[in-house]
């Protein structure tokens, strides 16, 4: 259909590109993608030849007016990211917001997403869940973000929590989470989902931290933490906690 279509692509296994995703990409006047080499290789594997236009963090604001002009003219534009669902820890939100503001058609072809797949394989209670994307890379802001999560939990939120993480930071992050959220807190590390070396390791935060401190993790990783045990308290205690959480931002 004419308009902007957000197309989810595989997170590893190329067989996960859906029939509708393939048809949408084939029929597009242009495919906006983060990296034309990554998307070009994926399209080539499926025998699709289509015009690709880079759209990434650094040019999204420049590209947006050009894309909107084409959409106004009735073009069929697809948006993909390197892997998985566009906009989820990936570019595209500013373009989508601008298209919606102009009343232009926005569609999506749903498909793979690492966070949801990790959640469903974690064996942890899946509902409700909180997806926090990547923690900040620097130690100070990371510790502050984990403390903020703890404050939210103390205010009464009991949800599974999902993060994306880079392999070289995994052990440190698990140790920091164990320290702040409790060594016994159940968790899971999902690695290389849909790929040859897919692995889901389940255990307490401290056991997982110990495991990955000893063996350097490789590949792409999601961390899932089980919901905080409900901390029941008096109305007064809850109010104090809520105030603390608000003060912590
Ligand atoms: N938009 C993507 C999605 O829908 O999953 C996520 C993009 S984000 C930039 C990339 C991060 O997602 C990786 O660093 C990793 O944390 C996680 N990820 C992506 N593919 C994965 C996989 N096959 N297994 C585990 N985690 C994955």
From TrEMBL:
Enzyme class: transferase
Cellular component, GO annotation: cytoplasm
Species this protein is from: Dankookia rubra
Domain of life: Bacteria
The name this protein goes by in its record: Ribosomal RNA small subunit methyltransferase I
Gene expressing this chain: rsmI
EC number(s) stated in the UniProt entry for this protein: 2.1.1.198
Alphabetic keyword roster: Cytoplasm, Methyltransferase, rRNA processing, S-adenosyl-L-methionine, Transferase
Function: Catalyzes the 2'-O-methylation of the ribose of cytidine 1402 (C1402) in 16S rRNA.
Family assignment from sequence similarity: Belongs to the methyltransferase superfamily. RsmI family.
GO molecular function: rRNA (cytosine-2'-O-)-methyltransferase activity
Positions spanned in the full protein: 22 to 270 of 301
Residue intervals of the Tetrapyrrole methylase domain: 4-208
